[in-house]
Design goal:
The protein has helices spanning 25-33, 49-54, 86-102, 111-119, 128-131, 157-162, 224-243; strands at 5-9, 11-15, 18-22, 37-41, 59-62, 106-109, 124-125, 148-152, 166-169, 176-177, 184-189, 195-200, 207-210. It has 249 residues and is α/β, with parallel strands linked by helices. Strand 11 and strand 12 (195-200) form a beta hairpin. The structure holds manganese (II) ion (MN).
């Protein structure tokens, strides 16, 4: 039987006059290493196709990238907020709604956590260094460097997966969750109080979001980030069994 199939969202970027689909290989590697079959899903112009794509997969990874347009949480863009990728925003907001409706296991990473929070009704801090009192450095060099502490809430699913109350993680973001969306719970924070992880409160939907980049850390000696992908893989395998037999016969 083929491994569970997982859609990984991606972005597009202009290279001269050519618009290219773009995703860091680290996501593909981490998903493959967890025993899953990765499918790179570009941002489609017709957001209604979110339903079609999720009808054919067993899991969804919301990958990192651009700032979400503040328009989607009713705030004007601030000076340090990126130029929005409107197509990607609309596509991923539709994916989150559909993933929730279908209870597709969803692993939301960095921007992924942010767009999920916005799609579910929350808001974001647009720039930590200028807006968060006492912010530590969250946009730190070194994609695989564990630069700050992440303190995990006891009793959370995240605590169960990671198996310890405090880890160190990489940090490559300048935004964060401001108002938490209904249905989500905070499961980890940085020492300055910035939200570093969330999960869905109901048992019907496996949804875990982290503000750091576990896909860059699966090759480190510490097992924590591999454990996250392994837990996601278990959830995808269960979704696969619910969906029925192998997609290719
Ligand atoms: Mn951070």
């Amino acid at each position: 039987m083929a491994p569970p199939l997982v859609a990984i969202t991606s972005s597009t970027r202009m290279h001269g006059e050519i618009e290219r689909v773009r995703l860091n290989q680290a996501y593909v590697h981490a998903v493959e290493q967890a025993g899953l079959l990765p499918l790179v899903a570009p941002p489609l112009a017709d957001a209604r196709l979110a339903r079609a794509i999720l009808s054919g997969v067993d899991g969804l990874v919301l990958s990192g990238g651009e700032d979400v347009s503040p328009h989607h949480y009713g705030a004007p863009p601030r000076e340090r907020t990126d130029h929005a990728h409107d197509r990607r925003d609309l596509w991923e907001i539709a994916l989150v709604a559909e993933a929730r409706r279908r209870a597709i296991p969803t692993f939301a990473i960095c921007r992924g956590l942010q767009v999920a929070n916005v799609a579910l009704g929350g808001s974001l801090v647009q720039d930590l260094p200028s807006e968060w009192e006492g912010a530590i450095v969250h946009d730190a060099p070194g994609r695989a460097s564990r630069v700050h502490e992440v303190r995990i809430e006891g009793g959370s699913y995240l605590a169960e997966v990671i198996g310890r109350p405090c880890v160190r993680a990489n940090s490559l973001h300048h935004q964060a969750i401001a108002t938490l969306a209904p249905g989500l719970r905070v499961t980890a924070r940085a020492p300055d109080g910035v939200i570093e992880a969330v999960e869905w409160t109901g048992a019907e939907w496996w949804m875990l979001g982290v503000q750091w980049h576990p896909e860059e850390l699966v090759g480190t000696p510490e097992p924590w980030d591999r454990a996250l992908f392994a837990a996601f893989a278990d959830a995808c395998a269960a979704a696969r069994r619910r969906r029925g037999g192998p997609p290719n016969g």
